[in-house]
Amino acid sequence: LVQSDEFKAAVGKYPTGITIVSTKHDNRFYGFTANSFTSVSLDPALISFCLNVKSASFEAFFNIKYFAINILSTSQIDLATRFASSNIDKFQNVSFTENNFGVPLISNVLSWIECEKYKHVECGDHYIFIGKALKVTVNNNLDSISPLVYYGKSYKELK
Fold first, then answer.
1. CA-CA distance, 4 to 10, in Å (whole number)?
2. Residues 2, 139 contacting (CB under 8 angstroms)
3. Distance in angstroms (rounded) separating the CA atoms of residues 139 and 108
4. How is the chain classified by DSSP, letter by letter?
């Protein structure tokens, strides 16, 4: 059987983009840093992310209907680090707006994908959440900015 440390080392050699997945549940904002984001389907437009069942925000994401994907740039390493932390008010002093569903959209990201939860599937110690894109916004003001990438246990910039 593959050991979890070996597995993490192997998948750590695969570069991934960095997002913050955000939502609002019971009048409280929730968000976490995710590199497990991917597009799933073009028709309908579906995306997915994975979340550990032990995460402090798991129950919120399990029980909500709407969420957003905030795609980060290299200038937002501090946000990625903040939202990867636990036991803090992640949205304190973070600039964002609420969409029509009350979901926080973090300011100055590369793009936003506003979603309705389509399905969730239990897979080991995580759930895969699939969302149907209701609205996408590309921040064209940031076309010259690189996306934030995670590789080998650290954040990287594409060059």
1. 10
2. no
3. 7
4. ---HHHHHHHHTTS-EE-EEEEEEETTEEEEEEES--EEEEETTEEEEEEEETTSTTHHHHHH-SEEEEEE-BGGGHHHHHHHH--SS-TTTT--EEE-TTS-EEETT-SEEEEEEEEEEEEETTEEEEEEEEEEEEE-GGGTTSPBEEEETTEEEE--
Reported pTM: 0.94
| Rounded Cα gap, residues 29 and 87, in angstroms | 13
Per-residue pLDDT in tens (0 to 9) along the chain, 159 residues: 888 889 988 998 999 999 999 999 999 999 999 999 999 999 999 999 999 999 999 999 999 999 999 999 999 999 999 999 987 899 999 999 999 999 999 999 999 999 999 999 999 999 999 999 999 999 988 778 899 999 988 999 877
Q: What phi and psi values does residue 79 have, to the nearest 5 degrees? A: -70, -40
The residue count of the chain comes to 159
| Residue of 55, 71, 57 whose CA lies nearest to 25 | 57
Strand partners, 141: none
